């Protein structure tokens, strides 16, 4: 290994450790990593072919995909203020009160449809978990049979259209590896659809394995309160404008390869239309543009570039390819890296960090084996958020605590769910992006 490889790897490790330990607020560690790249190059890089100067270290913030996703966050903020989202909450509550297996399946579908717009966000799963937790126990449909599957359903959109973040990360990884061919956003949607279908099938089959008991919150809360939605303050015209701008943004991003540069700024134009119409204010727009997630996306790109330009990623890819052998099927390669990424993310709680460890290696491995890297880049990106079988961080931990589950009850559902979903994810990726 060269000194440049060692320094790039060290900066990556520092960034990931800071993310995992929450030593700095989310989004801050990659910015520090960008600064460290400049310092390392200034001290040790006099003879390097590729210098990590200021333009190099902060190139992620001039990346077209990062800006596309940033503006789209502002559009999403507008959509979440509409009565459409409030009606979704009401539908969920009515189905729970009816009870029965049919209501269980319908609720799964409703939550998965809600994920189309809300995405795999903390706000959405908190909304769903809080809603279920406020419903009293009833024998027709015990809330212990709802909380776990509905919680995990928030990250499995049944018709994936809000895939801009996954698309942006996959493109960033491929660009850093020097891959000219980019995935279609529609292909990303197809891949995620397969993973969601795998989740839905398991959740239907696994219904009988879910326990029947009150939740931890049942004794303290009734059926009112948090389950009720807040009335929208937007006019009807503003709400329709928010929905139209969301649709325009999504369609534009789906055809980014055909539309060219205009597709990347189309969400920005839509965001400004919403700003002019007072659907959102400038603070809401600014919060979307410079959210911690966008800082994370922009900051990790130069670190991935540094690993690739130093030769480290190619070296690891060649080593993994040699270990696998030249006749390894593409599906197996994708599945192996999906498992590695998701397991790492599950045990460390670092979704983004795990993706940026394994995605470049997966791409380099595919290139060494003579396979198209598109499926690997797309699948590994999604795999970072496809674990959840250990209640270590975030959503799984909340499910275990709020659901009053034992570890055995939790694993009976979550471990098979993980296996089925990760296999369907790898299958969907190789179908959407033939290798």
UniProtKB/TrEMBL annotation:
Segments passing through the bilayer: 6-24, 54-79, 100-117, 150-174, 186-205, 262-282, 289-308, 328-348, 355-376, 382-403, 415-433
Keywords attached to this entry: Membrane, Repeat, Transmembrane, Transmembrane helix, Transport
Transmembrane keyword on record: yes
Protein topology in the membrane: Multi-pass membrane protein
GO biological process, one term: transmembrane transport
Main location: membrane
Pfam families reported for this sequence: CitMHS
Name of the protein described by the UniProt record: Anion permease
Compartment(s) where it occurs, according to its Swiss-Prot or TrEMBL record: Membrane
Record-annotated Citrate transporter-like domain positions: 16-380
Coiled coil ranges: none
A single cellular component GO annotation: plasma membrane
Organism: Enorma phocaeensis
């Amino acid at each position: 290994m060269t000194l440049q490889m060692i320094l790039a790897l060290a900066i990556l490790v520092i960034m990931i450790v800071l993310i995992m330990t929450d030593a700095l607020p989310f989004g801050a560690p990659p910015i520090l990593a960008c600064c460290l790249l400049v310092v390392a190059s200034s001290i040790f890089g006099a003879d390097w072919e590729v210098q990590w100067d200021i333009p190099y270290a902060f190139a992620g913030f001039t990346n077209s995909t990062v800006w596309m996703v940033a503006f789209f966050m502002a559009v999403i903020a507008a959509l979440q203020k509409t009565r459409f989202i409030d009606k979704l909450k009401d539908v969920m509550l009515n189905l729970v009160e009816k009870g029965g297996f049919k209501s269980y399946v319908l609720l799964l579908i409703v939550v998965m449809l809600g994920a189309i717009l809300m995405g795999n966000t903390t706000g959405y799963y908190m909304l769903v978990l809080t809603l279920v937790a406020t419903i009293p126990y009833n024998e027709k449909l015990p809330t212990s049979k709802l909380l776990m599957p509905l919680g995990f359903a928030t990250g499995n959109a049944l018709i994936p259209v809000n895939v801009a973040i996954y698309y942006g990360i996959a493109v960033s990884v491929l660009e850093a590896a020097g891959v000219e061919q980019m995935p279609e956003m529609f292909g990303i949607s197809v891949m995620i659809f397969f993973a969601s279908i795998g989740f839905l099938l398991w959740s239907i089959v696994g219904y009988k394995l879910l326990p029947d008991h009150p939740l931890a919150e049942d004794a303290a809360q009734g059926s009112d309160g948090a389950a009720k939605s807040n009335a929208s303050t937007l006019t009807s015209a503003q709400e329709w404008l928010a929905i139209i701008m969301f649709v325009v943004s999504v369609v534009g991003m789906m055809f980014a390869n055909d539309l060219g540069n205009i597709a990347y700024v189309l969400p920005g134009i839509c965001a400004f239309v919403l700003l002019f119409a007072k659907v959102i204010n400038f603070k809401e727009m600014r919060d979307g543009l410079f959210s911690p997630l966008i800082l994370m996306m922009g900051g990790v790109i130069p670190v991935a570039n540094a690993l690739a330009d130093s030769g480290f990623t190619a070296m690891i890819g060649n080593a993994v390819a040699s270990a696998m052998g030249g006749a390894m099927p593409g599906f197996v390669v994708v599945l192996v890296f999906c498992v590695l990424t998701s397991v790492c993310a599950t045990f460390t709680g670092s979704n983004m960090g795990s993706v940026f460890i394994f995605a470049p290696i997966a791409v380099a491995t595919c290139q060494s084996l003579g396979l198209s890297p598109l499926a690997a880049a797309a699948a590994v990106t999604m795999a970072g958020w496809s674990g959840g079988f250990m209640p270590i961080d975030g959503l799984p931990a909340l499910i275990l605590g709020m659901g009053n589950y034992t570890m055995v009850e939790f694993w009976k559902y979550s471990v098979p769910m993980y296996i089925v979903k990760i296999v369907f994810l790898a299958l969907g990726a190789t179908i959407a992006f033939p290798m």
